[in-house]
Write a structure and sequence with these properties.
The chain has about 280 residues and is of the alpha+beta class. The protein is built from eleven helices and twelve strands. The strands form five sheets. A three-stranded mixed sheet has the order 1-2-3. The chain has a three-stranded mixed sheet with strand order 6-7-8.
């Protein structure tokens, strides 16, 4: 199979020149963590803008300054194996598909898992691909702290445990976007100085109105926003079956549990790509 067989052809993007609010609005609408950025009036790729970048630079409003420009890309005729390798090596989840320098589609980890691996009948057990060292977060953790934990762990989602160490849910970027609001902040900046006795000149001075949009994270705990409906697998679950469960339940990770229900590992959708490359 090739990239063009599974890629998404209906592309949503933001344009430069543009603002962070343009990107925020589209990220929230699509429920994704990254979207392409193109030059206005063309289909020429500039790069990608990510939710993480917006978190890291809350005071930057110009979209051009928030774009990751050094991003991996693929062509429509590349093999899925080559695309899977690029995903695994780069750690990204979405890659623009370019033809003659213009964007013609998007391929995601989810596209390969849902449209290829789920249909391949791969019988290898999940234990071959699962991660045995699992980062978790306590259900009483504030969301703002959970965001930092996910960033430090290098994962977009983490299993949630209660005070007894029992897994009770999963939290990811989408859960956070879903409960957050876009807040618009405006302030006036005086461009020219004035002396103490010049208050009467205020109306004639040069002023600039600065407006920026920010994603306001609510003062809630992880347990208030996490996904509580868990989809779990065992070490012996076949890889294609894992992909099917991810597709049916629209999840990106499946905790691996023992016969006693104890958390022993996790399989993320990007881990399943190794079935195409090993």
């Amino acid at each position: 199979m090739k990239v063009k067989d599974v890629m998404t052809k209906e592309i949503k993007w933001v344009e430069v020149p543009g603002s962070r609010s343009d990107a925020l609005d589209l990220l929230r609408k699509l429920g994704v963590s990254a979207v392409p950025v193109v030059k206005r009036g063309t289909e020429e790729l500039v790069g990608m803008v990510t939710l993480r970048k917006l978190f890291e630079h809350p005071d930057e409003d110009q979209l051009a300054m928030l774009v990751d420009r050094d991003v991996p890309t693929v062509s429509p005729d590349e093999s899925l194996e080559d695309a899977a390798l690029k995903f695994l090596r780069s750690g990204v989840r979405r890659m623009p598909v370019l033809k003659d320098g213009k964007i013609v589609g998007i391929i995601t980890v989810r596209d390969i898992v849902y449209r290829a691996i789920a249909e391949m009948g791969i019988e290898r057990p999940a234990s071959d691909l699962m991660r045995k060292h699992v980062f978790v977060v306590w259900e009483g953790t504030p969301i703002k702290a959970a965001i930092e934990i996910m960033d430090l762990a290098g994962f977009r989602g983490l299993p949630v445990i209660n005070e007894n160490g029992v897994m009770v849910g999963i939290i990811d970027d989408y859960d956070i976007i879903r409960v957050s609001e876009v807040e618009v902040d405006s302030k006036v900046s005086q461009m020219s100085g004035r002396s103490e006795g010049d208050s009467w000149t205020w109306d004639s001075e040069d002023r600039i109105y600065i407006t920026k949009s920010m994603l306001k994270i609510p003062d809630k705990l992880v347990k208030d926003v996490m996904t509580k409906e868990l989809v779990t697998i065992t070490r012996k679950t076949p890889i294609s079956r894992v992909a099917q469960l991810m597709k049916q339940n629209k999840v990106e990770q499946t905790p691996v549990v023992s016969s006693e229900g104890k958390l022993v590992g996790i399989v993320r959708d990007i881990d399943l790509l190794r079935a195409l490359t090993e």
